[in-house]
Specification:
Blueprint lengths: L3 H9 L9 H14 L24 H23 L4 H19 L16 H14 L4
């Protein structure tokens, strides 16, 4: 079970105003997977054979980019698992990374859109407000 502070941090990420680096995004991914107790040993390792669409799609650059992205995510998750990061540690590391990214890239608690322009859902906005109150977080 994840803590309310962790849940709040997962929503704070959406309100970071600048473009988050790929390295930081990969860390978020790895910590999130571990924090939620996902079993790495059951994860399928990405390979070009997993992407059956390559034979149906003439957009090989897109497929290659998606494959690389999947591999990087898998490797980031694998690294943290090999380092022995527990779900509780992953939650704390995620929270610390959010704090760092808020300083590095900027943060707007009132934002209704993410840095990439996607609207933050009404449910997430309400959950953000509720969790901020529950955890005593003030912006």
């Amino acid at each position: 079970m994840v803590s309310p502070q962790f849940e709040l941090a997962t929503l704070e990420v959406k309100k970071i105003t600048g473009a988050i680096s790929n390295d930081d995004l990969l860390q978020f991914y790895a910590y999130y997977k571990i924090a939620h107790g996902e079993d790495f040993s059951k994860a399928e390792k990405p390979s070009s054979f997993n992407f059956k669409v390559t034979k149906l799609c003439s957009c090989s650059d897109i497929v290659d980019a998606n494959l690389k992205k999947a591999k990087y995510k898998y490797q980031a998750w694998e690294k943290e698992v090999k380092n022995g990061v527990t779900p509780q540690q992953a939650q704390q590391k995620y929270i610390e990374l959010v704090k760092s990214c808020k300083q590095k890239y900027g943060f707007d608690a009132k934002a209704t859109k993410s840095a990439n322009g996607e609207a933050i859902s009404a449910a997430d906005l309400k959950k953000f407000d509720d969790l901020a109150k529950q955890t005593g977080t003030q912006y």
